[in-house]
Amino acid sequence: MAGGGGRPHDGPARLGTILGKARSGGQTVEEALTRWLVYPGVLRADLLTAAGVLISLGVSLHILMRKRVVGSAIGWTGLVWLSPVFGTALYLTFGLNRVERRARKLKRRPSQQYDETPQAPASVPEAYAPLDRAVRAITNLPTVAGTDITVYRNGDEAYPAMLEAIAGARSSVALSSYIFLDDEIGQTFIAALKQAMDRGCQVRVILDGIGSGYFYPAAWRRLRRLGVPAGLFMHSVLPWRMPFLNLRTHKKLLILDGRVAFTGGVNISDGNRVARKPKFPIRDTHFRIEGPVVEQLTQAFLVDWAFVAGEELEGEAWMPRLSPAGHLTARVVTSGPDADIEKIATVVLQAIACARTSIRLTTPYFLPNDLIVSALCLAAARGIAVDVVIPRRSDHRIVDWATRAHIDPLLENGVRVWLDEPPFDHSKALSIDGEWCFIGSANWDSRSFRLNFELNVEVYDPGLARRLDAFILDKCETPLTRADLDARPHLVRLRDAAVRLLLPYL
């Protein structure tokens, strides 16, 4: 019963009475309706209830049609029915995972991709032909021969090489970074980009709207003041204009003249210059890539720039003819909450399924979904050596807590988990059988596999794979055992288990 002692059937009668008095008393209909709506009776509550039901029903229909993960669909549906307004607001902010972007087809030349050189056939080891075929179906891209890859450790090695490449660019510079700070190294990069533009290069820069600083990142403001074309990915300081708060571009890409590319895990910040002993040093691994596969990297950037700025970049400045630069075979794999959803995760599953002797990976954050956990467990069960290296302490304490509550099935099934001692290592690498490897920006968590826009490169090359193998095995000094997990105090285990429920969004 509502205030004023009204009953449900009193509402229409009360409305009729108010309208009658309005006609006799000279009130307008609007004034009469205002009196009726603010009258402390049941009808007002009924209208609010009906509105809540309609909102919950509409959002529930959207959830049923869009959410493929059953647990996620059940959770969101329950929340919007328990609290229509609050639940709907959260769903619009964090629950919408798909973004419509204009597709841009890869423009391959029909017969020749290299300067006066017939396109070299990309061959892969016979044992990996099924994996090659599967990834081609997933990405709709071919493996490309003629690739050369150089490995850099930390910003100490990567930054000088990147800055030298920017200084040598003659036609175009494309840069995309999740974190781009306006600190000493950030300002050095900004100055280099400005100089490239001043000597006639076309320069385009993408910063993530969350990773580089929410309220108009300082590096973005400095670039704009200097006249350097720079865009923020999925960003607005107005919440109602930014319904995709949870979706970010996590790519790290630098492409010079469409011929030389850098990618991997290194962001642009002073923390990555480990030799200078920053307050929180961040170790990492980055890669310089040359050869025809750079065209696939460039296409990934051009799609993002068209989405951010609405500008289609064309011509030889961005897409020149490319010559072989090495002997590696490679292919780009992009992933994101659009048409590319979960492509990197699917490639990882395919690679695990094709493994014959070893699976070795290092990642700063390890919270994969149950499918990938099960795949690793099954691989270990069939006798494959599976080694997973995670930081003892990452830069996100909550993720560390959730990880401890997530890995027990792996340890139970024979997967070896190792703790990488500080300083924190942000490197991401996967090596299979010492012959195939997967490098790039994606972490092994649900955010990278499903929510973020990511870019990885698969490489068929024993030399690089074994180098990454050695890099990963060198970290395998401190094992994490089930006894270690069981030794945690009960309250700590309870905290970790509770935080794990946030797995889809950590």
From TrEMBL:
<comment type="function">
    <text>Could be a virulence factor.</text>
</comment>
<keyword id="KW-0472">Membrane</keyword>
<keyword id="KW-0964">Secreted</keyword>
<feature type="transmembrane region" description="Helical">
    <location>
        <begin position="76"/>
        <end position="99"/>
    </location>
</feature>
<keyword id="KW-1003">Cell membrane</keyword>
<feature type="domain" description="PLD phosphodiesterase">
    <location>
        <begin position="421"/>
        <end position="448"/>
    </location>
</feature>
<dbReference type="InterPro" id="IPR001736">
    <property type="entry name" value="PLipase_D/transphosphatidylase"/>
</dbReference>
<dbReference type="Pfam" id="PF13091">
    <property type="entry name" value="PLDc_2"/>
</dbReference>
<feature type="transmembrane region" description="Helical">
    <location>
        <begin position="45"/>
        <end position="64"/>
    </location>
</feature>
<keyword id="KW-0677">Repeat</keyword>
<keyword id="KW-0812">Transmembrane</keyword>
<keyword id="KW-1133">Transmembrane helix</keyword>
<keyword id="KW-0808">Transferase</keyword>
<dbReference type="InterPro" id="IPR022924">
    <property type="entry name" value="Cardiolipin_synthase"/>
</dbReference>
<dbReference type="InterPro" id="IPR025202">
    <property type="entry name" value="PLD-like_dom"/>
</dbReference>
<feature type="domain" description="PLD phosphodiesterase">
    <location>
        <begin position="245"/>
        <end position="272"/>
    </location>
</feature>
<protein>
    <recommendedName>
        <fullName>Cardiolipin synthase</fullName>
        <ecNumber>2.7.8.-</ecNumber>
    </recommendedName>
</protein>
